[in-house]
Design a protein that fits this description.
heterodimer, A: 318 residues, alpha/beta, six-stranded mixed sheet, four-stranded antiparallel sheet, 14 strands, B: 420 residues, abc type-2 transporter like fold, 15 helices, 6 strands, 62% helix, elongated, binds adenosine-5'-triphosphate, binds magnesium ion
Chain lengths: 318, 420
Amino acid sequence: MNDIEINSVTKRFEDTLAVNDISMNVAKGELFGLLGPNGAGKSTLTKMISGILNPTSGTIKVGNYDIQKDSMKVKELLGVVPQDIVLYDYLNAKENLSFYGRLYGLSGKKLKERINELLKFTQLDKKAVKRHVSTYSGGMKRRVNIAAALLHEPQVILLDEPTAGLDPQNKHALWEIIQSLKSQGKTIVLTTHMMEEAEELCSKIAIMDQGKIIALGSPSELVKKIKLENTITLVPDKTSARLIEEIKSISGVKNAYTAQDENEKTETIKVITDNPDDILSDVVASTVNNGTKVLSVQLSRVTLEDVFITLTGRSLRE
Amino acid sequence: MKVKRAINQVAAVAKTDFLGVLRNKTAIFFTLLFPLFFIVIIGFTFGQSGTTETSSIVVGVVNLDGELIAVNATNSINGTIGDLLVEALESANFTIYGYDDYGDRDTNGTAAYAISRGDIDAIMVIPANFTETLSFQYTDNLGAQVATQSHLQLHVDPTDTTGALITQQSILGFTSAFVKQYQQVAIQQVPADMQSYIQVLADPITVLVSDAEVTEEELQWIDYMVPGTLGLVLLWSGLNHASMTIATERTKGTFQRMIIAPVSPTIVLLGKFISNLTLVYMSGFVMLVSGVLLFQVNLYWNIPVIILAMFLGSLSAIGIGLIISSVTKNEEAANSIAVIISVPLQFFIGAFFPLTMMPEAAQVFGEALPFTKLVNIMKDVMTRNLPFDAVIPELLYLTVSGIILFSLGTIAYRIALKRL
Ligand SMILES: Nc1ncnc2c1ncn2[C@@H]1O[C@H](COP(=O)(O)OP(=O)(O)OP(=O)(O)O)[C@@H](O)[C@H]1O
Ligand SMILES: [Mg+2]
């Protein structure tokens, strides 16, 4: 069953075609990644799902409700974390959460419980909870920004670049939270332009560029789609045909060959494999056993970045 | 349940909006402290009374009355009545500086020099024959009294026209009363059966001035100003604030986030309205209370009419604010438009000075404004103590304009929702 169904949706702003005829589904319980460079149309698509923007054409269903015909039902189901921090900076964290909770119809004891739970989630200390949001650090604001979308325990959560501007520690903490939401069976659409984030978290990814989805699938499917492979590059002091044959015979090695390093005019050995981490030590060991010294080893995995570059000829973050 | 939920949502929107004002120093200043500040200025400028205090009028007196003057070959240095006039001026609270000489503007120490430098407001020259004339000392060769005239001269500072007028009026009023005393004495000298004729000749027409019976209490200018300030409250706390709320929230994105929630646009509007109305009442309350505490204004407190009229007036003010808030792109634009509209409007609603002082076209425009109607209602009930039915036509006008403007505001708001 799908929690989100997007059907030929287009959004045009005056002269920009921000979203160009996109169709895609997000299954219930899926952690779906929308990956794309700046201006790809990710936020525009999320804003249409959340009802802030109306599509120029096409239809969107959330939980089987049409977002325009049954907008109130859809709004109950959705929890939306905007890309920018959207909080009342003259209110403290608790007051902000209370405001959004009440908008979603929470009141009394239930509201208090939810606020307390989410205050724990924000990891703010007691003093900070009582200070106005304007005094918070970027990370504190981000966490409250997310918490404000979760008060009513939404089934479908839209997260627009939730980790933007967070340090690695906070980022990982947030990833854990996102994973725990997924484990509660929530359907999550995560927008990002960081491929590590999409790779780490998402079970399915749509790569967007210039308003279109240019690739859709699980991270491994996407990697397979492009004909790049994981490579181990060895720089030995000398090479021999026998060494190449020996490396080829290691299980897991798909191919091995010598190549000329363009800059340094030295010979290198390229080893093609599906799982470079597992066989790296075998490759190095057999080279050394052959009586060859290993001057350096380089390991290159095919990433979503490579997928993006292959598909568009441009880099993700520029 | 639905109703309870809606009330909860409206309350949340209203509270958040209201805290936005309470916790914003600039907003607090403009909605609460600025009115206070304003009333203090008005109070101290015009508060004392409708007429000018005579003590603030500085009169330079050149009393020549004591000087030697020949009365039909008899030298007289009789100056008693001139001195009396000066004393009377002093006791009427005028501030008196004495000078020996009228002089000229270039000679330090003379009256003309002082007035040219603004040290005094007027110069009164009491002529040398003042006492002689008023005490009938002039006789002909046969010893019969001869009526002569004595000319008091009054010079006022022409550079300050209104000031000069006030000064002139005050001194003339005082002097004529003083002279009248002596007129009576002169008339006593005439045979009794002639006195009434002489009286008529001396004063062929007299004008009796008194205040009509409009109020039972004696009113000061500040008493008229305070009800008028409620019209300003509508412009500042109503129109200005309403034009900012949605524009600000849209700029910050909180408006978008609010409508992501399952809350109808009407509920948001209602919450905003309630917060804004509270602000209007609060600011009006501050105005009235400070008027009472600082200046002891003397007003009639027809609370139901005050509350009703403020509510109806707020519909118009907030309606205009909503239109501004909806058609503008961002906070700054909304603010500038609100200022451009509300600042000039202040002068057309009869709060600072009566509309009748304005050109015809401006009066017609001013009279059409709902805020003017509110000011009129407030003056009617608070200073004239008119009953409810006397202000019904103006309340109806406020109702109709409130409904029209607020509906237009709602339409503009709905349109704005579509183009976030
Ligand atoms: N309200 C708007 N009016 C006009 N153009 C807009 C508007 N919102 C977005 N756009 C344009 O639509 C395109 C897509 O923008 P969008 O914000 O969806 O990109 P994004 O993928 O979220 O980028 P980022 O990673 O920078 O957040 C951009 O060219 C942007 O300039
Ligand atoms: Mg974006």
